[in-house]
Here is the input.
Amino acid sequence: MPRSSTAPAELACQRHTLDNGLRLVLHPDRGLPLVTVDVWYHVGSKNERPGRTGFAHLFEHMLFQGSENVGTNDHFRYIQQAGGVANGSTWYDRTNYYETLPGHYLELGLWLESDRLGFLLPAMTQEKLDNQREVVINERRQRVDNQPYGRAMERVHELLYPGHPYHWPVIGYMEDIAAATLDDVQEFFHTYYTPNNAVLTLAGDFEPDAARELVERWFGGLPRGPQVPAVEAELVPLGGERREVLGDDVLLPRVYMAHRAPRFGDEVWYAADVLATALSSGKASLLYEELVYRRQIAQDVISYVYPTEIAATFLTVATARPGVDPAEVEAALGEVLARCADEPLPEERLERARARVLQDFWIAMEKLDGRADLLSQYTTYFDDPERVVGEPERYRRIRAEAVRDYARRWCVADERVVVTVVPREAP
Here is the structure.
């Protein structure tokens, strides 16, 4: 029989595991007559290998091309006819698909997701692969190759993660996407698109026992797949600063300064998140005060840390004002980070940063699809949807000394990457 557990009352959440390994999270909320169906597959670009990049993202596209009982593009048509919305996304660690529907259409969402999980390959054709491969190639052109500053983050990761699964971009390299075959796609599906490599979260207007029966009806008969090994990779020290200058069709230089951080969920990661927020969230933040207002050498600045599974990227980006040397902007970024490593944040700044982080958390929790996505995330990464409830307290425990210690240990010149994008010289 499936195993069950009930989460803390604050989230009104239940956890079940079907016999085929599918993990199910139920979060009933009768406040609105809506339901979100959210599916996470524990596969992203980090599961790929050099020469075969972009498969996870390409596969996201393929799952909207129809299955045995659903025609091409009919997934969106059925959802829209019911008054709902649907989409999907791919990242380093996961691929997710979701629908938000009127509550009485819950079974429609479950049928659509189960049909493409269980019956995608019979509808897979070379024509569909060729079509979506061209779509992804054009997407890469639009988002990366022909986008101002588009290659910068790709190059940051290549320099920051040598020999690591975060080295290559989520969208993949052009030559790898072009080389994908139907056999490659079928192998990828058999390996990663299985019930035991998935989390299904339902949030919204439903009765839990009835919803669980529907999930058993539509997913319970799908066979368990092979065990997917966890991806682990050691962070090898860079052993010295890595930098590069990229010429691009832009008007203003932009500086990308990147360091690494522990994986999402590690206590130190939360200190890094608080630091990133203190640096650039709001016009009273450290970097805005220093670079934008006092020195007036940058016209914008942002800092953030990725919530990724096996390591994290701590990134600070600033766009130089017209006529300002990007080297001056880079030096100023380094000076602010050095001050954060030398002394703890003042209590007022710490409290402001913590409040901003928690504000973003509660905004995400206000919406059904936001809650569903968080529950899927914590179940996928930690096998623990209840962990969501403790997230605010993890931030409240962060002290100024922990933020300083993160900057002192991780934000050092020998372990950083600097990519500077400058206007391309005329031929």
In short: Residues 1-9 have pLDDT under 50 and may be disordered. The two ends are 70 Å apart (CA to CA).
